[in-house]
Design a protein that fits this description.
Layout lengths: L1 H20 L1 E3 L4 E3 L3 E5 L4 E8 L5 E8 L12 E4 L2 E4 L4 E8 L10 E10 L7 E3 L2 E10 L10 H4 L1 E4 L4 E5 L6 E10 L2 E11 L4 E5 L8 E7 L5 E7 L5 E2 L2 E2 L4
Parallel strand pairs: 1-10, 3-11
Antiparallel strand pairs: 2-4, 4-8, 5-7, 5-9, 6-8, 9-11, 12-13, 12-19, 13-16, 14-15, 14-17, 17-18, 18-20
């Protein structure tokens, strides 16, 4: 047993040393001109730009997926063109996303993941090349949805329960993306949560460290343009509350 473990340790140490001795290329060469994509169903297509800021020619591959293993990306009702593009150094490419016209829910906004992967040239000897993938959300927005997406964060329903759990429900048709949610009473921090998205009709339970009665809820939401907007509300056990936007000073 001891000999087996010793051999494994030696093998792992050798592998780590070998990796350290290799020249590793892991710096992204591509820059994308947006951080999220909004696809209104009324539009025939949407697009994004890719720029090769590296000093070598690369291939760029783009595809959509749902983020779950249950859905085959090839069966999504979208076409990306070009799906693979060759970019010289300082080269630019406009990539189009085209909806087939059917196959997506029409009663609510949907979210897909756009993947943009840099495929490096064939690696030189003793060089470890890494294909770098960037991901961003694509929000597909059907026609005729009720409400205004800009007001969706204010429509979230927050309710503090006696067991120190904060319940939040999204009754609207749009996703709400939050980069931070906090609850504070005086100097006591009761909740500090990062990166939370709540889908249409979804409910979440957020446990607090102690009683949140009388605490102040704050969260930062991301709008369609990637900007951050602050919202705030007071919490009272057993009562439903909705946050209001905090205007910049």
């Amino acid at each position: 047993m001891f000999l087996f473990l010793h051999r494994r340790i030696v093998l792992l140490a050798s592998l780590v040393l070998w990796l350290l001795l290799l020249n590793t290329s892991a710096q992204a060469s591509i820059v994308i001109n947006t951080t999220r994509i909004i696809y209104p169903a009324a539009d025939k297509e949407v697009s994004f730009g890719v720029h090769n800021v590296g000093n070598k020619e690369i291939l760029v591959q783009s595809w959509l997926e749902t983020g779950t293993e249950q859905t085959d990306p090839d069966k999504l009702p979208f076409v990306i063109t070009p799906a693979i593009a060759r970019l010289p150094s300082d080269g630019r490419q406009l990539v189009r996303i085209i909806y087939a016209g059917m196959g997506m829910p029409q009663d609510r906004e949907s979210v897909l993941w756009l993947n943009v992967q840099e495929i490096p040239q064939v690696a030189a000897q003793n060089t470890l090349q890494i294909a770098i993938r960037q991901r961003m959300k694509l929000f597909f927005r059907p026609k005729g949805l009720v409400g205004d997406v800009a007001e969706a964060p204010e429509h979230l329903r927050w309710k503090l329960h006696a067991d120190n759990t904060l319940h939040v429900e999204n009754p609207g048709s749009f996703h709400v993306s939050m980069v931070r949610i906090t609850a504070q009473r005086g100097d006591s921090e009761l909740l500090d949560k990062d990166s939370q998205m709540i889908a249409p009709g979804q409910q979440l339970q957020l446990p607090l460290k102690a009683s949140g009665n009388g605490a102040t809820l704050s969260f930062i939401s991301i709008n369609d343009f990637g900007g951050q907007v602050v919202y705030r509300a007071g919490l009272k056990t057993g009562e439903v509350t909705q946050a209001v936007k905090v205007e910049p000073q």
